[in-house]
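We emphasize that the prediction below concerns an isolated chain of 188 residues; any contacts that depend on oligomerization or on bound cofactors are therefore not represented. The input was used exactly as deposited, without trimming of termini.
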Amino acid sequence: ARILVQNKEVRPYDESGILTDHILNTRKIKLNSHQQGITIELFVPNYPAGQHNIFSYQLEGFDDEWIVSNDQRQVTYTNLNPGTYTFKVKAANNDGKWNEEITELEIVVLPPWWRTWWAVLLFSGAAGYGVWFVLRFLNQRRLMNDQLEKERHEKEKMEEMNQMKTRFFINISHEFRTPLTLILSPLQ
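Result of the prediction step, given as a token string:
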């Protein structure tokens, strides 16, 4: 069997890092977020009538039903969403006798970095910090406005108190002045 990712054949220990062993010994492969397409070439070791084999395959998580292929040797899936899929295949020989053993290959398509759990956690933390910062800023502004209002109110009270004192002294001086004027007038 061969696996092609983004139309390039994947081999064990190549630069893609997808296969670490021969495909026949591999049960799981991981694709990066930019590797959303995969082609799997199917074969059975029926050399005399290899071209007359029938395949039935399904990609769990993508296909709803098994797909039967008479002459098609390659299965291609493109635009796979991030997630875990299981590719299952079984074959029938040229006599139509199905092999009951299903071969499975788990395919994991990794999400882009911004959709990983740690990125979501980081973004949520940053958003939480942003909300906290805005709320803190608004609270400090409210406290400062309350403090200014309190100081303005105290200043008004002080001004009113000063005016009351001034009126009191004016009234007292007027009260002293009137009798004194009355007393001083006859004396002169």
